[in-house]
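Re: the 319-residue chain
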Amino acid sequence: MIKKIEQILTIPNELGGLRLDQALTKLLTEHSRTEIQRWIKMKEITVDGREPTAREQVLGGEKIVISATPKVMPNFSAQPIDLNIVYEDDALLIINKPIGMIVHPSQSAKENTLLNALLFHHPALEALPRAGIIHRLDKDTSGLLMVAKTAFSLKSLSQQLKNRTVSRIYQAIVSGTLASGGTIDEPMARHPIQRKKMAVIETGKTAITHYRVIEKYRDFTRVKVQLETGRTHQIRVHFAHIKHPLLGDQTYGGRLQLPKGASKEMVEMLRSFKHQALHAIELGFIHPVTKKPMLFEAPLPSDMRELIAVLKKDVLDFL
């Protein structure tokens, strides 16, 4: 049986002038504003004995009674799946996700995901939304992910992500030769026809991607990418939009263009590379408990290192 949250409190005078949901978010630090708004909507919070709205202003001194039901995560199974744990303490986990692993279950993939693995590794995560997963990586993108282990950490890390203070650095190999770095500032939304894809849409949400060139090859470029926002498929869509799709991207990459005069080794490598060449190589944030800056790195996966070696060899062979 799910245990209800029962609490009585008084709004401090210094919070007078705030909206009710804002004031309660400051007082109930282990719960998100979205969760508190849901309780108000479900009439599970009263103010001085009446049912309020989330947007109403508080003056200070109001009596708040909470009798709320926590949102329960769907019953996903715990599975003994190996995890590459880069760091772990009582507050959070840092995972280096391999290529091919889905982060969160869906209707078509309910097992063998990162979430299933996390529930086995730390069963208490069942009490947290999305088992504490703060952000996602596509199935065929590898690299660093952060996972909260407590409600307090979940709120803190989610807020940092929302405030754009989490540093997320990627490395990617894109088609074509980029002259220099730059910023792609193009709004994104769901593709109007192909609903499983995202696209640059004028009326979409703000999406900003910064990049700089690391290394140039004959027909490809390795870039360092920093996300300012985190829209679904953002890096893949943005580089496809500027006509430099990620090498190996089966969704946004279009038809593979083989370089003129490419060696047999080069052709075989390019044809066999069936996922986007994208890796979340660096992750930085403020620890929710210690308040110390945290920075983690994950080396490029072996197939990307092999790809880079072949691209470098192709440059030398062509000279």
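The mean pLDDT is 92.
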